[in-house]
Amino acid sequence: MPPVSPYRSLPAARRVALVAHAITTQKGTRARFAQRLVSRGGGFRAAAVAGWPVDRLARELVRMNAEQATDELELLQLLYVELEPDIQITFLEAAGVRHENGVIEESLQPPFADAEAVARATTAVREAHGEDGERYLRALVKYSADVWPGIDTLVQS
Questions:
Q1: Which residue segment(s) compose the domain that 141 sits in?
Q2: Among 1, 32, 60, 75, which residue has the least CB neighbours within 10 Å?
Q3: Can you name the residues that pair with 104 across neighbouring β-strands?
């Protein structure tokens, strides 16, 4: 059995909250997620799903595990960069990477730090953020190991 993705390791209530936030703040997300539910079958009609309240749509999407890999990445970015940047800020500061509230400066080119800085940042995240920090680190391994040298050897995915 393959390991659970960092996104799917979040508690269901937290995933529902992320999906609901994305639906209410990102243009086109409601229609995309509604279509995803309809395409999975189960008797859902497009017109009915389109009219559901945000919370119901989010709960049903999570219940059916209808999020795709690209959705998972976008939702994790939403979580770690926009909604709860503390873990990313801890990582970037310990690695010595310039950022503004957890957002890496656009002028920087990957890799953003050397392996020694990545090791320091990994330790700092683990010490400061526990299980949530470990999930963040697994997300880095899964989605951007190429820009954080050595992280794949420091974190079990």
A1: 84-154
A2: 1
A3: 99
